[in-house]
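User: Show me a protein chain along with its predicted structure.
Assistant: Here is one chain, sequence first, then structure tokens.
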Amino acid sequence: MMNYVPDPPPQPATAALQAHDLTVVRGPRTVLHHLTFAVPRGQVTGLLGPSGCGKSTLMRSIVGTQAKVNGTLQVLGHPAGHPALRSRIGYVTQSPSVFDDLTVRQNLEYFAAILDPGRAAAERRHEHVTQAITDVDLTSHADALAGNLSGGQRNRVSLAVALLGAPELLVLDEPTVGLDPVLRRDLWNLFHDIAATRGATLLVSSHVMDEAERCHRLLLMREGEILADDSPDALRTRTGGDTVEAAFLHLVDEAAAAARPKESTR
């Protein structure tokens, strides 16, 4: 497969995700600090930042599984966690969410039956399962037990589950961690194909900065705050960096310099 990033499609007026003053407190610690941002529809948006900066907490907030969320968070026109969103969002966690004692196909058939129950939907479910297995390149392992797969293959089964039913929003928490470079490339091409041909919105988190170059738009995070919300080209232009990683480091230094006068007055 060719490694390419297609031009982003035109943006509709309404964003897929809109957050205002989004804050999450866990015990004595504030994990997310008053985040305000928007994610456009039909694009691949990267959520980039070091481990522990709050990426997973933000993703759980978006899919409605995070407790103690304050502020406003609209997802596909509904408040995050609204029942109407259940069949419209695909979510992949960092740890594969599959049953080890079922085959790849059986795992997908199980989740497809939850999403689209009833005998009348059997043929449609079969088509969705077959398509999802093909999308993640697991056709040759369709009848293998999930427990016998490698870690990277199990990650792909989780991604296939998220693709069932052609969701409008895919929230993918570090889906390429531990994968070889060829498979990483193929998955990123798949992400862009899903956005371009199906009109889906993808929010993909990573702590690997070179993956930022593959995104239409970026949310750069550090210590529970968003440092930037822009395209890779705009970030490089704004900071004078040759890469997104250089731009990120520039923004970190900029934020640290801005905080010093506040610290000196305490």
